[in-house]
């Protein structure tokens, strides 16, 4: 049994904040099959198309029959911990700073034996559940947890290195005027966030749900207009060093594509809010987050974007909006690379139409704002990178993978 | 007028015998803008983006790129802004006569009434009562409505509720009367528009815009420091940016006031 993680004390201002170190990065191209799965929270192994044997680590040929036909498929997660060891003085800087560090040898029920990071409650001879997690380098690593839930399970020290659990962390939700923003605040608070800062642009404008935010314990309403460079910089000057998780709930949805709109003013607003807003936030908050990636229990941990799944494939009915989302998706990959040295994860939640005002005339299925909020929390707890929320998002993903040209035609209706 | 009088004016400004009162709010990103239903086009708010600040982007100089809508901050409305003035000659900020940019002002103090009622309306009887005290409003004068609204915090300043903004302004009759019977050059307010917050429900809607611009007159809004002006005798300098075919512009509005 592990002790519950304690709320961090105030920092000793006489001590230097330790800079983040990264675990080893190199991987073969093939083993990024695991990275892809870990990003989505799936567990895959290579399986031989000829003889059906599972293989691990990533290989170019089947170790059983030498066939080259190995493909990554969803695999059973269960195994038994054969042996464990504790590295006390590792030579790698990242692990040395975090020693002692437990690893073990796991015999998977489906065949292969895997070296994995261990949850503290894993004991030799007992069944475990395996997952691939993204470590602080953003690379997939095998992680074994006990099969049964144990007390304070999510508080395990090694597990927290793989995740961005909001517990005791301070979160900035950038737009509290939207329903998604307000649901995110509630969900993060319920998940144990110490403080949720909520950005409100143009505070002179009243908005629905305002009373849910103001005067609430652990919720601080702050002035933030992401489209205004100075507003983002001013807020970062105040709280930039206290934002452990940033949830970008910027929401600017307008219907229309190119020919039925006149001029560029709506498109400009879309770009100002979504794309330039992203840049303003990144420039204001990114550097401190990257620097604080190893700052104790409440280290900076994650940046969450909520994107339309139509960032992946343009939906002409909301064509210009889709394009603004595609721009943000591209930018998120840049941010991921730039935050990586700090071990800060960049998570993208893809949603179909959400059940909000600007999708009023779009027929169901639509994603409930609360489902988006819950997905944010579970993504943080699981340390994921790509999350598809709701049926539409999942379906678009699958159809895009199957035939992008077909999807393009199908979205034109 | 002899040139020595002009030089006397310059000397009086320099010596302080003529006071210069700044009636302008700072043009800043957080200043409230007019709120229209979201399905309409929106005024872009003020945005200030640093080009360089004595740094790698420009080691010895500081400058910004600035963007804003024509109707943001303390701003000027030209006749072309409203449909009633769309076909008038010289109806835009670049074509309007430069001499219209300097004119005397009558300041009507309604601060007590506005403090009582956010929907306070200026009426003909109120102006007549003002005239009984200060004399008839001369032609080609600005009429400035003092409400002390500019002293409020932004939320009270815009005062938006679920049935729209509640801010003071003129009623339709007084606007028609000021334009047609008094021949004013324009009408100025401390609030976000020349019209009252609820003026969309008036007949005609937005009477200040309707009557002023229909007669080729001007509007000024988001003014401040009107409490530093005398009821009569101040001279307003209001020269908007010369935007091609512009419907208005943010501007610096100053008033010249005799110090004694």
Describe the structure in your own words.
The complex is a heterodimer of chains A (413) and B (260). Chain A has eleven helices and 15 strands. With 413 residues, chain A is α/β, with parallel strands linked by helices. Chain A folds into two domains: 32-156, no CATH class; 170-411, Rossmann fold, CATH 3.40.50. In chain A, the strands form three sheets. Chain A has a seven-stranded parallel sheet with strand order 11-10-9-12-13-14-15, with helices on both faces. In chain A, strands 4-5-6-8-7 form a five-stranded mixed β-barrel. In chain A, β14 (345-351), α9 (369-382) and β15 (386-389) form a beta-alpha-beta unit. In chain A, α6 packs parallel to α7, α7 (265-291) runs parallel beside α8 and α10 (391-402) crosses α11 (404-411). Chain A is globular and about 65 Å long. The termini of chain A are far apart. In chain B, α5 (172-180) runs parallel beside α6. Chain B is an alpha/beta fold and 260 residues long. In chain B, the strands form four sheets. Chain B has a nine-stranded mixed sheet. Chain B has a two-stranded antiparallel sheet with strand order 2-3. In chain B, strands 6-10 form a two-stranded parallel sheet. Chain B is 20% helix and 27% strand. Chain B has a single domain (3-31, 70-258), classed as Glucose Oxidase, domain 1, CATH 3.50.30.50. In chain B, β2 and β3 form a beta hairpin. The interface between A and B is medium-sized, with 17 and 20 residues.
């Amino acid at each position: 049994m592990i002790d519950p993680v304690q709320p961090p004390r105030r920092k000793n201002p006489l001590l230097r904040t330790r800079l983040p170190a990264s675990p080893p990065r190199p991987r073969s191209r093939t083993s990024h099959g695991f990275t892809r799965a870990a990003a989505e929270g799936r567990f895959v192994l290579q399986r031989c198309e000829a003889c059906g044997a599972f293989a691990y680590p990533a290989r170019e040929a089947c170790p059983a029959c030498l066939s080259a036909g190995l493909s990554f498929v969803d695999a059973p997660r269960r195994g038994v911990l054969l042996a464990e060891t504790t590295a006390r003085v590792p030579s790698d800087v990242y692990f040395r700073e975090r020693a002692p560090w437990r690893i073990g040898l796991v015999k998977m029920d489906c065949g292969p034996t895997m070296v994995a990071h261990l949850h503290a409650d894993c004991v030799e001879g007992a069944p475990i559940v395996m997952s691939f997690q993204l470590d602080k380098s953003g690379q997939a690593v095998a992680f074994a947890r006990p099969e049964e839930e144990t007390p304070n399970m999510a508080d395990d020290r090694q597990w927290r290195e793989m995740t961005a659990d909001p517990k005791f962390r301070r979160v900035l939700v950038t737009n509290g005027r939207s329903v998604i923003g307000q649901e995110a605040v509630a969900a993060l608070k319920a998940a144990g966030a110490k403080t949720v800062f909520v950005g409100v642009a143009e505070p002179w404008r009243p908005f629905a749900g305002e009373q849910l935010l103001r005067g609430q314990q652990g919720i601080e309403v702050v002035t933030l207009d992401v489209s205004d460079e100075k507003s983002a910089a001013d807020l970062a000057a105040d709280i930039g060093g206290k934002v452990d998780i940033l949830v970008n709930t910027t929401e600017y949805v307008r219907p229309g594509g190119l020919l039925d709109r006149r001029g560029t003013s709506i498109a400009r607003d879309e770009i100002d809010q979504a794309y330039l807003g992203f840049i303003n936030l990144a420039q204001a908050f990114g550097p401190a987050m990257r620097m604080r990636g190893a700052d104790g229990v409440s280290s900076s941990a994650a940046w969450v974007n909520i994107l339309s799944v139509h960032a992946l494939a343009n939906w002409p009915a909301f064509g210009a909006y889709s394009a603004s989302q595609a721009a943000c998706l591209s930018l998120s990959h840049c941010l991921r690379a730039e935050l990586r040295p700090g071990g800060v994860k960049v998570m993208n939640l893809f949603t179909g139409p959400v059940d909000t005002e600007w999708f009023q005339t779009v027929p169901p299925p639509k994603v409930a704002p609360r489902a988006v909020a819950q997905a944010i929390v579970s993504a943080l707890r699981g340390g994921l990178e790509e999350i598809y929320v709701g049926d539409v998002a999942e379906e678009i993903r699958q159809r895009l993978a199957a035939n992008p040209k077909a999807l393009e035609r199908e979205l034109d209706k | 007028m002899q040139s020595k009088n002009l030089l006397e004016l310059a000397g009086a400004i320099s010596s302080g015998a003529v006071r210069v009162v700044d009636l302008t709010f700072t043009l800043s990103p957080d200043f409230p803008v007019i709120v229209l239903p979201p399905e309409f086009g929106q005024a872009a708010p003020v945005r200030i983006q640093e080009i360089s600040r004595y740094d790698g982007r420009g080691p010895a100089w500081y400058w910004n790129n600035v963007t804003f809508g024509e109707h943001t901050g303390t701003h000027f409305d030209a006749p072309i802004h409203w449909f009633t003035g769309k076909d008038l000659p010289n109806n835009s900020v670049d074509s309007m006569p430069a001499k219209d940019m300097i004119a005397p002002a009558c300041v009507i103090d309604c601060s007590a009434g506005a403090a009582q009622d956010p929907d306070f309306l200026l009426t003909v009887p109120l102006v007549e009562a003002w005239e009984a005290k200060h004399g008839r409003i001369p032609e080609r004068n600005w009429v400035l409505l003092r409400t002390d609204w500019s002293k409020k915090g932004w939320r009270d300043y815009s005062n938006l509720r679920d049935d729209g903004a509640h801010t003071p302004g003129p009623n339709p009759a007084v606007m028609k009367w000021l334009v047609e019977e008094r021949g004013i050059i324009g009408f100025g307010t401390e609030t976000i528009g020349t019209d009252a917050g609820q003026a969309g429900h008036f007949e005609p809607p937005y009477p200040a815009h309707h009557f002023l611009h229909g007669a080729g007159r001007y509007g000024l809004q988001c003014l401040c420091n009107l409490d530093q002006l005398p009821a009569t005798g101040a001279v307003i300098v209001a020269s908007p940016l010369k935007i091609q075919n512009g419907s208005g512009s943010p501007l610096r509005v100053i008033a010249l006031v005799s110090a004694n």
